[in-house]
Design a protein that fits this description.
The protein has 199 residues and is α+β, with helices and mostly antiparallel strands. 62% of the residues lie in helices and 12% in strands.
């Protein structure tokens, strides 16, 4: 618990420097990243305590409580994100995310993502900062403009059709695809890779 509190203190004190190291002088991204780190770090002591208790009980052979705890946690987080997103938007999602597992991704997709998709057209390019863009798709695709024409994609969409639509956006803006950076290997993040690499 003391270690978790120390980590929270370090994150609060050094988060602007961490974000600057990661993204450079992208002020808006640094601002959002710092807010994200501050909010998420507040859940660390609670999550560490819950994690230690659950695993201690698993180690003693007790299985009923850990299963109950997991179901309770999922139910609470789902209800919390459903309510908080309507009042404080994306920051409500950040409060439910602790980095332990992927359940929050499902919640974000169903609660926040569906609201956003109603408001935004699919495969529309949205400028986030001077050099960063987002392509609205079922799994958001990031575009980083390294210089006037070379761009890096962060993920490529869920299939060949997504790759084709991304290619059209790149061509329309006169951009050359330098590389694709995949956040992880789920199909909805790497599905357009093969098509885009073949172009």
């Amino acid at each position: 618990m003391v270690l978790a509190a120390a980590v929270v203190a370090v994150i609060w004190a050094a988060s602007p420097q961490f974000m600057y190291l990661l993204v450079g002088d992208e002020k808006e991204i640094v601002r959002i990243g710092v807010r994200y780190l501050h909010i998420v770090s507040l859940t660390f002591p609670f999550c560490v305590s819950l994690y230690l208790l659950t695993n201690f009980l698993r180690g003693t052979g007790e299985i009923a409580y850990p299963v109950f705890n997991t179901m309770l946690e999922l139910g609470f987080r789902t209800a919390f994100v459903f309510v908080s997103v309507r009042y404080i938007g994306f920051y409500g999602i950040m409060l439910t995310k602790n980095g332990r597992d992927g359940k929050e991704c499902v919640m974000i997709n169903f609660v926040y993502g569906n609201d956003q998709r109603r408001q935004q057209r699919m495969y529309e390019l949205v400028q986030v900062s001077e050099k960063c863009y987002c392509i609205n798709s079922p799994a958001k695709i990031g575009v980083y403009v390294a210089d006037g024409e070379n761009v890096y994609l962060v993920d490529s969409g869920n299939d060949k059709d997504a790759g084709r639509k991304v290619r059209q956006i790149l061509d329309k803006n006169g951009w050359h695809l330098a590389a694709i950076l995949n956040t992880h290997s789920n199909a909805d993040h790497i599905g357009g890779n093969r098509y885009l690499q073949g172009q």
